[in-house]
Amino acid sequence: MATFVKPMAKKAFAVFDSDSHVVEPRALWEKYLDPDYRVLGKAALWREEGPTNCYLKVNGKMFRDTMNPNIPRLAIWRPGITWAQVGELDPDIRHAPTRGASDPQARLADMGAMGIDQTLLYLTLVRRGLSSGRRPDVARALARAHNDWIADFCAVARAGCSRRPWCPAKPDFAIAELERIATMPCFRGAFIRPMFIENRYFTHPYYDPLWGRALEVLGITAAVHPATGLWNPEWTSHAPFIEKMKGRLSQMALLREAGGGPFAGGGNGANLGFSPTGSWATSWRR
Hints:
- The protein is of the alpha/beta class.
- Strand 7, helix 7 (208-218) and strand 8 form a beta-alpha-beta unit.
- It is built from nine helices and ten strands.
- The radius of gyration is 19 Å and the shape is globular.
- It has one domain: TIM Barrel (Alpha-Beta Barrel), CATH 3.20.20.140.
């Protein structure tokens, strides 16, 4: 689909996209993952994009995609596209995902088209089921592979992209991974999903070493990123964050600015705009 992007006016401030996502490619499993874990990694978590159907596999169990696989909802937004144009897409024709979701050079072009100077990137596929993984060692290998891939992604645009590393749920493995990535310039914090794992929330004393020994000592920000997990095999946020989101559903001013709340996936207010994968960007002055 051809879209027209109006040139951005010159500005005297930086535009920072604080919540944007990448879509992990097959190379994460087939190139970056330790060879000893490639079979186990695909069994623990794998997203298959077939020519006629899609599915998510978690712990060896397959969950069919309940939405139209011809329209890649994880990466359909691109600079200049509108809600109306997305609605007009032919559902019987396979549409390619936005290249900027997985390709760093294309992402830089998308950022330039929208006047975005810097962006903070979050994971997409890996977050959808790996916290439910049954093998901590596999989760550790996948976390390392993901962080290595995104580091290479950001290296192409060192001045424009920064990243929240993903860490396995076991404190010892998480601490080791945080110590490993602490010296990598692209990482700005640690991605944490607010959910119960093995009946423990992240405020449980079990996780004290993670907060005190790793995050505080290393000076790494904890990026707590809730989500409803509507298309996941199970919910991916629990407890107070769900209540907070529920309360915000009544804040109509915020919902209008954000494009309909946490379920909508984009913004349409005067101060907000779409990133290549449908998250929101806001401008601030230095």
